[in-house]
Amino acid sequence: MIRTMIVDDDALVRLGLADLLDGDPGIEVVAQASDGLKAIDQATAHRIDVALVDVRMPRMDGITATARLRALPHPPKVITLTTFDLDEYVYNALAAGADGFLLKDTDPDEILRAVHLVAAGSAMLHPFAARRLIDRYHAANQPEATGAKARLDRLTPREREVLALLAHGDTNADIAARLAMRESTVKAHVSRVLTALEVTNRVQAALLARDAGLTA
Which residue among 13, 28, 146, 202 is least packed, with the fewest CB closer than 10 Å? Predict the structure, then answer.
């Protein structure tokens, strides 16, 4: 059972998401919060596996809340909720440790899929916005391309292959099938990649890979 928390200042959004998530037999909504400060309190009081966090909220915004949640002793995974015209905030959310983001008009089935994927250790980027966001991130960080390439030089050839597939959005199971290895071996490679690149999650690793030109 995936224990989730919904963080949004709109009560109707919280209600709709709660109804959706509770309708999945593998997901349970154990906490809700109307702002970042309350989210920290709820995450401290409850064991949360995945938190869905809005970007714009009073008192403490979703970006700050994401960083605070990820710094807890038992940090939940975080999926940032946003609208497309707020995509500049997503970069900061990813840097704060979010494992992905969804647009608020995302198909309900995709929201459920995202919760399951993130809980399992994968990342989830909205399919229609991911490329635009990554392209903008890459363009904004062109001066850092040399540094990114140097960090990729720390990887073995096999780890670079794993990173390239990860950057394309493949799950551990997908990578295992493509590279003919066990999923447990892929998990070990991913862990070493994150450590070598000095990033905290798969999204940051994928952005770094694209910044270095490893993937198109």
Answer: 146
